[in-house]
Write a structure and sequence with these properties.
This protein is an alpha/beta fold and about 290 residues long. The chain has helices at about 10-15, 30-40, 50-55, 65-80, 100-110, 125-135, 150-155, 165-180, 190-200, 220-225, 245-255, 280-285; strands at about 25-30, 45, 85-90, 115-120, 140-145, 185, 205-210, 215-220. Helix 2 (about 30-40) crosses helix 4. It starts with 11 loop residues before the first helix and ends with a helix. It binds 3-methyl-2-oxobutanoic acid (KIV). 3-methyl-2-oxobutanoic acid (KIV) binds near residues 48, 50, 142 and 220.
Length: about 290
């Protein structure tokens, strides 16, 4: 087949080049059929370790084994043809040192055919991010509220709602960008802080409970379809049980591309000066 007709997947460098451009659309996918349905509408599919809670009923993502991530990622790669597939490294598979992280991440790439991995952590993971990217493994970082750290952080509540917390998150974002991450997920961060970080770093920010000013947005598919029993404030339910998945995904993708989502009701204001949001989010939300 000539190059002209080859179906080409979105790559990690393609996503990196979208900094400041048209908003990046992403959703989680854990199995082949949903991957096939949402593939045409998103730029990347995340095989998130949230699958431990959503698919397997764990209370947190901590128990998820690497083998389970590989099995679900294989299904998602088989079910999709064009979106970049990013696979979460589960808790315990990468934190110890860069070479263990490389061994496990290389396994994920080789055994699944995905195009990138994601790992949680900011400045303290910078050496690992550099080690992996220099050796051919594209890394998406994940900062803000990091669910794998639940046993040390104590709750899934949003972060950065007090200005006194900002410097640490800004330093995390700078460190992962400088270490070579091609994008960074900002989860459950105060809206103003997420917008500020987006302006400060040279790689795309992907918001989940963050800001409409992020370079892209992601949600857990089952949450936005209304299938999850409890969802955080930042989740907009685009379909109720039984409604079409494709219609919900189309609506989500359209709202991300026009920055209609997330409006203020799906973001976290500051605590000191409660209703403060960036101009863009306020306009859209009001
Ligand atoms: O595991 C996951 O689904 C994630 C998203 C919430 C970004 O990391």
């Amino acid at each position: 087949m000539s190059d002209e007709f080859a179906v080409k997947r979105v790559t990690a460098p393609d996503i990196a080049k979208r900094k400041g451009g048209a908003p990046i659309v992403a959703l989680t996918a854990y199995h082949a059929h949903t991957a096939r349905i949402i593939d045409p509408y998103v730029d990347f599919l995340l095989v998130g370790d949230s699958l431990g809670m959503v698919m397997h009923g764990y209370e947190t993502t901590v128990p998820v084994p690497l083998e389970l991530m590989i099995m679900h990622a294989q299904a998602v790669v088989r079910g999709s043809t064009r979106a970049l597939v990013v696979v979460d490294m589960p808790f315990g598979s990468y934190e110890e040192n860069p070479s263990i992280a490389f061994r496990n991440a290389a396994r994920v790439l080789k055994e699944t055919g995905c195009g990138a991995i994601k790992l949680e952590g900011g400045a303290h993971m910078a050496d690992t991010i550099r080690y992996l990217t220099e050796r051919g493994i594209p890394v998406m970082s994940h900062i803000g509220m990091t669910p794998q750290a639940i046993n040390t952080i104590g709750s899934f509540k949003p972060r950065g709602r007090f200005r006194s917390e900002w410097a640490a998150f800004e330093e995390d974002a700078r460190a992962v960008a400088e270490a070579g991450a091609f994008a960074v997920v900002l989860e459950a961060l105060a809206e103003l802080l997420a917008a500020r970080i987006t302006k400060q770093i040279a790689i795309p920010t992907i918001g989940i409970g963050a800001s409409a000013e992020c370079d892209g947005q992601i949600l857990v598919l089952e949450d936005m379809l209304g299938l999850s029993p409890r969802v955080p404030k930042f989740v907009k339910e685009y379909a109720q049980i039984g409604a079409g998945i494709e219609a919900a995904v189309k609506a989500f993708a359209g709202e991300v591309r026009t920055r209609a989502f997330p409006s203020a009701e799906y973001t976290y204001p500051m605590c000191e000066d409660a209703p403060e949001v960036t101009k863009k989010t306020k306009m859209i939300g009001s």
